[in-house]
Amino acid sequence: MLNLTVRSKLFGGFGLSVAALLAVSWLGYNGLQTASSYFDDYRAAARQSLVISESATTLTEARLAVVRYALSPNDTDGQRAEKLLSDLKASKAQVSQFFAGSPQLAELQALESDVVAYERAFLDFRTSNAAATKGLEGLQKDGAEFRALLTETIETAITEENAAVLAAAARTLQEFLLARVFMERYGLAADPADLTSAKTRYANVEPLLKTVVAAQQSAKLSQLTAKLAVEFEQVRQQAAAVETGVVAQQEALTERIFKIGPAISTAYQTVSNEVIAVQNEVGPKASAGIDSTLSTTLTLASIFTLVMTAIAVFLGMSISRAISAITDCMRAVAAGNLTMKVFGSGRSDEIGEMAAAVEVFQANGIEKERLESEQAAVKGQQEAERRRMMNELADSFERAVGGIVETVSAAAQEMQAAANTLSASAEETAQQSTAVSAASEEAAANVQTVASATEQLAASVNEIGRRAEESSSMSQRAVGDTQTASERIAFLSSASQKIGDVLNMISEIAGQTNLLALNATIEAARAGEAGRGFAVVASEVKALAEQTSRATQEISGQIAEIQSATNASVDAIENVGETIAKLNGIASTIAAAVEEQNAATSEIARNVQQASAGTVEVSSNITGVSRAAEETGAAASQVLGSAGGLAKDAETLKMEVTRFIAQVRAA
């Protein structure tokens, strides 16, 4: 009997009741011929009770079918509920027949409008349920298309390295998936909290979509964002349809079906009680004529009553306990217990069908938890990928800019060394020019001595010869000194040329650094908020590169002036060498003239005047060489200072690049 359906149990119980009543009625008919009038009244009451019982049974079956349909909508339960309600309305002719002239007729006729309202409420529930189901199907279809578009947008953003679109699209996908889960749960369980969560998530999607539209920078992303906006509007419309359908079906179920059904059952029970009261009133009136039959009838009635009471208690306990147990299971599942064993699983009656529906809810809850775990894992993977891309960007920038910074630093150090060499050369040139100047002054003094001794030429031939030899020796030393000075100036010219080459190389490096800083600024602008710090450092690198370029240009101008002064010094030293060579020739002439002193006195005087003019010219040229050497030393000091500043700038640039790379890797 445990495997029988609730319907079968109820039919069996009521069937036994009807059978017992018929048996008692049959015994009373055979034994109460003399009380036929009373028996007719009693029989009418029995028929009324039967009609009420059948109507109540039909109503109970219809309500069970409605409940089954509400728990698990299907055409079988829906059609059965409609048929039972139609049969209940069709029984009004039978009710009018058996209750004609009865005071209960007005009450039963009033229930007909309630039955019609109950049927209308159920039909509205089916209609709204169909609308909600259609909305859920549309939501799944449009949601899948929207998700595919988002996925394509994310892939395109990764390909185009658009970090802003990638972040906004990933967040949009997360919010949309959560909204979809909450809306589908609301369509199945009608929990207002799920509806509120779904609306909140949908509201979060709108500003994120606007962010994606604002950050897109390509034609393909523009097309995708336009499609996303259209598809999201369709998703919102489907969600609104689901909400409307669920609200309507809940209103029909809770405000009408669950209120009208119990009211009709109560009314049927009231009429049944009134009919039973009539039976109880008619029965004692027939006791006088049918004592013996009544005794038998009462005995049998007592037996049947005990049996039916036991059956009724059994049916009531078995059905109510099962319903209470399955209700507890539903509450536990609603509270989040997804692992408990559902009561009634495997039963073949209506309780088993309800248990199967609860197991479906358990499976849906477990699937939801799995989806949430997967979403958390995907979010972690996206964060790791973002960090990997930032580290790769930092490594690439370090390789591109680090080498240039090292080159600039090395060039600055080399420039300092060259400037030191140039300064030392200029100092040595000044010393040599001072020595040459002293020698030329001494030569001038000797020439004056020769001039004063011209008047005593006859008496001083030997002295003139000695002086001529000294003059020749000093001229030779002066020639050696001028050659040394010429070599020093040539070395100074070569050093200044090398410095110019180094400055050109530094200028080229500064230009390349400026271009790299410009490219870094462009890449930072593409990265948006994520590249703001990168843009600041790139701007500082660009400023340092421009400062380095200006410094090298100033140093190049100064080096050009040094080269010009060096060339002038070379020309002056060559003139000094030529003059000293002439002086040497004059000294030789003086030595020869000693032998012809008497004949060449006038010639000696003239040559002495020329020698005096030559020594003056030599002294003047040596002064120019000394001044050029001083200018060269000053320029070398300026080059050294500029090289030191350039070295400091290169070190600052290196520190800024290191700090920027550390910031990028820490982001």
Automatic annotation (TrEMBL):
Keywords: Cell inner membrane, Cell membrane, Membrane, Transducer, Transmembrane, Transmembrane helix. GO terms for biological process: chemotaxis; signal transduction. Residues 563-625 form the T-SNARE coiled-coil homology domain. Residues 44-283 form the HBM domain. The keyword Cell membrane applies. InterPro entries: Chemotax_Me-accpt_rcpt (IPR004090), HAMP_dom (IPR003660), HBM (IPR032255), MCPsignal_dom (IPR004089), T_SNARE_dom (IPR000727). It is found in: Cell inner membrane. Residues 317-370 form the HAMP domain. The chain crosses the membrane at residues 294-315. It is a multi-pass membrane protein. Residues 411-647 form the Methyl-accepting transducer domain. GO terms for molecular function: transmembrane signaling receptor activity. Its main location: membrane. The keyword Transmembrane applies. GO terms for cellular component: plasma membrane. Belongs to the methyl-accepting chemotaxis (MCP) protein family. This is Methyl-accepting chemotaxis protein 4. It comes from Pannonibacter phragmitetus. The gene is mcp4_10.
